[in-house]
Amino acid sequence: VLENWLDLDAYGNAINTATKKGGALTFASDTFTWEVLDAATGTYKVGFIIEDLDGHRQESLLNIEVVDEG
To answer: Is the whole model's pTM more than 0.70, yes or no?
Structure first.
């Protein structure tokens, strides 16, 4: 899991970015959830890369456009 962090100025513009390695998500009895947070205007790529126990990977990515209307 890669986490991309943005530092925002008072106007919501990204002024600094950082990418950090996160932990693995392991499927179990609980479903995955995420939290909606404020984001700088721009295009973001969101997705999942799934790997089975044999090492086979499947990727699903989607571009999401964020527009600051505030």
So the answer is: no
